[in-house]
Amino acid sequence: MRLIFGLLVMAVWAAGQGHQATPLPRQQPTEDPAAVERGQALFKSSCGFCHGDDATGARAPDLLRSPVVLRDDGGNLLGPTIRNGRPDKGMPSFTTMKDDQIAAIVAFLHHQANLALHSNRVARDYPLARLLTGNAQAGKAYFDGAGGCSGCHSVTGDLAHIAKKYSPIELQQHMVYPSGNDVSKTATVTLKDGTEYRGKVVHQDEFNIGLMCDDGWYRSFRADEVKISEKDPLEAHRELMRKYTDADIHNLFAYLESLK
Ligand code: HEC
Ligand code: HEC
Description:
CATH architecture of the largest domain: Orthogonal Bundle
Distance between the termini: 50 Å
Bound molecules: heme C
Strand content: 5-15%
CATH superfamily of the largest domain: Cytochrome c-like domain
Structural class: alpha+beta
CATH topology of the largest domain: Cytochrome Bc1 Complex, Chain D, domain 2
Strand order of the largest sheet: 4-3-2-1-5
Helix content: 40-55%
Number of domains: 3
Radius of gyration: 24 Å
Order of helices and strands: HHHHHHHHHEEEEEHH
Number of helices: 11
């Protein structure tokens, strides 16, 4: 497609030689429809929660007016933005996204930006108004019930005052993509008598495992005397978050945002 566009540019350029050079009309939607369609699906699942399914902004900026999108040429700016994210500003990095997936998202964004450019839509929803679209009560019910969040979290324990700890933008990021700052691995250690300790693995070698337990105490165990089950909490969390519907996530966010 880019090649075709390039040839088109050359053709117009060649045609313009000798005459008054005509400025190129702003590029009409030229993206490959199949790529756009694929990109739309990817965008919806990976980006839509924050940027809005149509990219016009939700809790994160409207991308159709973003200089990054408007100045991007075939992914040269968008690619790095997606890969690296802006972790300090609430945009997660998508380090594992494949080139063809990024290319599809780029095609979708250019397509959308072009449509917006050629449409007369003046009034846009004010992005911030969309931030708290969920229902906190429904979020609470979901947290304690079907969502299973309370199996790992407690709003009076680890998530107490979470909305004070993070700005709304950060909170949504940590909820959907908990970052690995101080989180490495958690493990559950089961003693012979059945007692279980769960916590962060802060030390591990052939013989011992040391946990910072959920009750705040550090405990060390002989590896051959206990049963250890480990998991990567972040991966599990991402898997989980993919299962929830948009409405669930909006409700959960409204609920967590109320935990001042
Ligand atoms: C958890 C929320 C979140 C997700 C998911 C997310 N973003 Fe972002 N994104 C943000 C925030 C917040 C910013 C603004 C960062 C800043 O202020 O610099 C941003 C900024 C951007 C920008 C730069 C906008 C500009 O003009 O500076 C682009 C482009 C972008 N995101 C694309 C994407 C794409 C594509 C995806 C999916 C692959 C995605 N984002 C997923 C939150 C998110
Ligand atoms: C299988 C266990 C598990 C389940 C179920 C689970 N989480 Fe998590 N969650 C974690 C782990 C582990 C972390 C990362 C460690 C941490 O930050 O406490 C985390 C992090 C978070 C954070 C960021 C906390 C912080 O202080 O940065 C939020 C918010 C969160 N989860 C919300 C939820 C919600 C909402 C649900 C239910 C929809 C849920 N989690 C379900 C294990 C779980």
